[in-house]
């Protein structure tokens, strides 16, 4: 492989010298960066190697057209290849079976199986209008059975009781029978996990699979697992014909490289991403968006959606227009941003979606603390006059003291808020300057 690539590289440089702009140097340089990005995002090393090799081949075979720079052309190729590796477009749950469609949940303990079972139940009820039954075959942990009962209730689905003294296969069969007789559309079967792969567990779930013949066998994996995800995925893939993957805890720090590893090892499509502990924290997985996240380009589409979801649309629209028209971003906007973030369930989810270069600094702040600070910040802004909020530059020492006293905080806190405001204003300016847009366009090419 290495020699072929080198051959191709030198051939390319020869044939393209003077006219095209992809050169051996910049291919190598770019590939080094891509490699770093993937490793940083915790993609498993063998997967990175494989991927780089594929991209190199594509890049060298590709014609560089129009006014694209070599870097742009390569980023475009990398992004497309990433998205293609993780699956084109989006894929939802397959329910094409004689009802009830059985869905088997597999994965390690703590991966998020039980939570995801309930999230899926809710998704199927709300989005697909299905009548859903859940059952737990986790006979090792009675608490897990109880947990499923609780979250199933929250999801508005029905729960089939099981006890630790039953056999998993018997539990599943009884639930299936119940689901048939009561005309359920879907039966979700939660299973036992272990902290690490073990053979007895794999055999048990394989037997369960053989008995209930699920239409979907979903492998639930924690995105934070990073490099280890590849081993877990391999073991489950050997035991079960997986039909889909759910990547949980995507709201964490991870850049989600596990997606690439798991997808490559199992060959199964990634169907959903878990994005919070809450029952509605499940999103249909979007490979293209996720490619951007892995490369550190930020998930602008998701950010925009998040900003407008369940939030004050009018305010969001006004803000968007302001940024576009170049009007000054003032403390009123800042306040409305802060309260919207609160509605969105905190700062951390949002920060996660911003491009790395924007959050390089922000990523290091303690998110819990940041969320606690939000209320104080509101207090501070509320003790400013309307004029001060519109023209924050007016706020000098005397005004700061008055504002601090009004909000019951130290002057330092007022200073900190003003600094944060300035940072956000800078960010807005950058976005308005089209830096981000240009970057996204480049990727689309
Ligand atoms: P199981 O052992 O595989 O059934 O895992 P659980 O469903 O009990 O989940 C383990 C822990 O992960 C729980 O504390 C869940 O709240 C949490 N969890 C599951 N999915 C997500 C997610 O998408 N985001 C976050 N932040 N936490 C999650």
Automatic annotation (TrEMBL):
A molecular function GO annotation: GTP binding
Binding site for GTP: 107-114, 190-194, 248-251
Domain SRP54-type proteins GTP-binding stretches: 269-282
EC number from the UniProt entry: 3.6.5.4
Pfam families the UniProt entry points to: SRP54, SRP54_N, SRP_SPB
Any single Gene Ontology cellular-component annotation: signal recognition particle
Main location: cytoplasm
Enzymatic reactions: GTP + H2O = GDP + phosphate + H(+)
Compartment(s) of residence: Cytoplasm
Alphabetized InterPro entries for the sequence: AAA+_ATPase, P-loop_NTPase, Signal_recog_part_SRP54_M_sf, Signal_recog_particl_SRP54_hlx, Signal_recog_particle_SRP54_M, SRP, SRP54, SRP54_GTPase_dom
One BP term from GO: SRP-dependent cotranslational protein targeting to membrane
CDD domains per record: SRP_G
Keywords in alphabetical order: Cytoplasm, GTP-binding, Hydrolase, Nucleotide-binding, Ribonucleoprotein, RNA-binding, Signal recognition particle
Record bears the keyword GTP-binding: yes
Domain of life (superkingdom): Bacteria
Main function: Involved in targeting and insertion of nascent membrane proteins into the cytoplasmic membrane. Binds to the hydrophobic signal sequence of the ribosome-nascent chain (RNC) as it emerges from the ribosomes. The SRP-RNC complex is then targeted to the cytoplasmic membrane where it interacts with the SRP receptor FtsY. Interaction with FtsY leads to the transfer of the RNC complex to the Sec translocase for insertion into the membrane, the hydrolysis of GTP by both Ffh and FtsY, and the dissociation of the SRP-FtsY complex into the individual components.
UniProt domain comment: Composed of three domains: the N-terminal N domain, which is responsible for interactions with the ribosome, the central G domain, which binds GTP, and the C-terminal M domain, which binds the RNA and the signal sequence of the RNC.
Subunit: Part of the signal recognition particle protein translocation system, which is composed of SRP and FtsY. SRP is a ribonucleoprotein composed of Ffh and a 4.5S RNA molecule.
Entry similarity comment: Belongs to the GTP-binding SRP family. SRP54 subfamily.
Protein name per the record: Signal recognition particle protein
Organism field: Piscinibacter terrae
């Amino acid at each position: 492989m290495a020699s072929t690539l080198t051959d191709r590289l030198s051939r390319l440089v020869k044939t393209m010298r003077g006219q095209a702009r992809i050169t051996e140097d910049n291919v190598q340089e770019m590939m080094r960066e891509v490699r770093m990005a993937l490793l940083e995002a915790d993609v498993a090393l063998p997967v990175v190697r494989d991927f780089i090799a594929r991209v190199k081949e594509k890049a060298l075979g590709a014609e560089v057209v129009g006014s694209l720079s070599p870097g742009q052309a390569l980023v475009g190729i990398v992004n497309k290849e990433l998205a293609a590796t993780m699956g084109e477009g989006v894929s939802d749950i397959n329910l094409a079976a004689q009802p009830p469609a059985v869905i088997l949940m597999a994965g390690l303990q703590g991966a998020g199986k039980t939570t995801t079972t309930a999230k899926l139940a809710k998704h199927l009820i709300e989005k697909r209008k299905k009548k859903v039954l859940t059952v737990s075959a986790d006979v090792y942990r009675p608490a897990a059975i109880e947990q499923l009962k609780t979250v199933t209730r929250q999801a508005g689905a029905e729960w089939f009781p099981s006890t630790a003294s039953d056999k998993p296969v018997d539990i599943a069969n009884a639930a299936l029978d119940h689901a048939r007789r009561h005309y359920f559309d879907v039966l979700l079967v939660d299973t036992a996990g272990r902290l690490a792969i073990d053979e007895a567990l794999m055999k048990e779930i394989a037997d369960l699979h053989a008995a209930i013949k699920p239409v979907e066998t979903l492998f639930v994996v924690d995105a934070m697992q990073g490099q280890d995800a590849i081993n877990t995925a391999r073991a489950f893939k050997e035991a079960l014909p997986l039909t889909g993957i759910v990547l949980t805890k995507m709201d964490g720090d991870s850049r989600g490289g596990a997606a690439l590893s798991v997808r490559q090892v199992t060959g199964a499509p990634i169907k959903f991403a878990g994005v919070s502990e809450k029952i509605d924290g499940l999103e249909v997985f979007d490979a293209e968006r996720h490619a951007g996240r892995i490369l550190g380009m930020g998930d602008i589409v998701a950010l925009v959606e998040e900003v407008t979801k369940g939030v004050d649309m009018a305010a969001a629209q006004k803000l968007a227009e302001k940024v576009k028209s170049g009007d000054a971003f003032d403390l009123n906007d800042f306040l409305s941003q802060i309260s919207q973030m609160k509605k969105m369930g905190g700062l951390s989810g949002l920060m996660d979606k911003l491009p790395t270069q924007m959050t390089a600094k922000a990523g290091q702040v303690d998110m819990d603390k940041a969320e606690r600070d939000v209320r104080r910040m509101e207090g501070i802004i509320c003790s400013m006059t309307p004029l001060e909020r519109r023209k924050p530059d007016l706020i000098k020492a005397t005004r700061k003291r008055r504002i601090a006293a009004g909000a019951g905080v130290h002057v330092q806190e007022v200073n900190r808020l003003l600094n944060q405001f300035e940072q956000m204003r800078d960010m807005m300016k950058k976005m308005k300057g089209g830096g981000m847009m240009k970057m996204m366009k480049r990727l689309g090419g």
